[in-house]
Amino acid sequence: MARGLNKVTFISNVSSLPEMRSTAEGRPFTSFSLDISRNWTTLAGEYHGETECFDIVVGGDLAGTCKDRLDVGSPVFVGGGVSRCMVGRTALAKNTSAAK
After folding, report:
1. Fold for domain 8-21+31-37+51-99?
2. Could you tell me the residue ranges of all domains in the chain?
3. Under a CB-based contact definition with an 8 Å cutoff, are residues 74 and 34 in contact?
4. What's residue 3's pLDDT?
5. CB neighbours (10 Å) of residue 5?
6. Which tens digit of pLDDT belongs to each residue from 17-37?
7. 40-74: string of b/e by CB count within 10 Å (b at 16+)?
8. Taking the model in full, what pTM does it have?
9. Is the distance from CB of 32 to CB of 84 less than 8 angstroms?
10. Is a pLDDT exceeding 50 seen at residue 91?
11. What average pLDDT does the segment 46-57 reach?
């Protein structure tokens, strides 16, 4: 079986207030959501659009920075790996780095 690369990059605005929590081991992490929109026009001239919501989890030292500096509407660049999460949202980006 071929090996793949699990890498994703999002550039969008924060759509939920960042929430900081800790794991059972006491490691901090911050979670927030991004809404990613895609718009297009068909050859027939019909306009279409769709929006998907992605839950983002940031750990380590960057968790505090995200909690302190991000707010709803803040532009953000997020890079990391994707892990499928079966709790009602599309995906969860883990091991992320975020820059405002």
Report:
1. OB fold (Dihydrolipoamide Acetyltransferase, E2P) (2.40.50)
2. 8-21+31-37+51-99
3. no
4. 81
5. 6
6. 999 999 889 999 999 999 999
7. eeeeeeeeeeeeeebbbbbbeebbeebbeebeeeb
8. 0.73
9. no
10. no
11. 92
